[in-house]
Amino acid sequence: MATAFLGYVLPWGQMSLWGATVITNLLSAIPWIGKDLVEFIWGGFSVDNATLNRFFSLHYLLPFILAALSLMHLIAKEENGSNNPLGITANTDMVYLHPYYVFKDLVTIFLFFLVLALFLFYAPNKLGHPDNYIPANPMQTPASIVPEWYLLPFYAILRSIPDKLGGVIAMFGSLLILLAMPVLDTSRVRGSAFRPLMKLAFWLLVVDFLILLWCGGQHVEEPFITLGQFATAFYFGWFLIIVPAVGIIENTLMDLAADENKTASTK
């Protein structure tokens, strides 16, 4: 997301300039050091040429870091193996990463590039914003500041909280909460192939995410404010309440079934 945001700033249109101003200003919500930190990132007292040079350098560097992390992921996958549709560890059925998994993943990669090529060659302006063709002007605020479509759900979470610091915490928390999934998922079964409740919960999360995406692209007015707040509450509730609850329910049902089978076998 950081790489995408830095690249969005580089065209230096109205949306790029004001998007950079708004997002970097979020750091000013940090107590005591926020204002100094923002000026340090800007390289001055406002978003200017120094900021653009810094963002260009970081935008060039971060993809290499992502590539290194992807390589580390492949090494870990080769060392520890991956999951399977059954959600069980079966070393007897293991297959080599290459060529089997490599070619399986290449199908997804080529499909991704096919969809990307359709937008690049046939609809390059479809996902953009016309205001970004206006040269950057720090003296004129655009009618609305809309980030790129893949940042809209998190932008909706940010503006759903009236308090500035609370909105920043909620936005970063919506990403960092993924790190807590190994703890929050209390189910004994890996994967969702045999978990109907989790399948239903997953699609509820998908619908909620799409609602956040839609709200993030709308003006800050009713009913989008209230709808975004409900969607934000459900997003965090899904991770903190629904996922653990589904795991507890499934484990309880499995224990009851096991006890029933044990009782039936002893009769």
TrEMBL record:
Keywords: Electron transport, Heme, Iron, Membrane, Metal-binding, Mitochondrion, Mitochondrion inner membrane, Respiratory chain, Transmembrane, Transmembrane helix, Transport. GO terms for biological process: mitochondrial electron transport, ubiquinol to cytochrome c. It is a multi-pass membrane protein. InterPro entries: Cyt_b/b6_C, Cyt_b/b6_C_sf, Cyt_b/b6_N, Cytb/b6-like_sf, Cytochrome_b_C_euk/bac, Di-haem_cyt_TM. It is found in: Mitochondrion inner membrane. It holds the Pfam family Cytochrome_B. It comes from the Eukaryota. Residues 1-86 form the Cytochrome b/b6 N-terminal region profile domain. The keyword Secreted does not apply. The chain crosses the membrane at residues 15-34, 55-76, 101-123, 165-184, 196-215, 227-249. Its main location: mitochondrion. Residues 87-257 form the Cytochrome b/b6 C-terminal region profile domain. GO terms for molecular function: metal ion binding; oxidoreductase activity; quinol-cytochrome-c reductase activity. Signal peptide: none annotated. CDD domains: cytochrome_b_C. One of its GO terms (cellular component) is mitochondrial inner membrane. PANTHER family: CYTOCHROME B. This is Cytochrome b. It comes from Mucor circinelloides f. circinelloides (strain 1006PhL) (Mucormycosis agent).
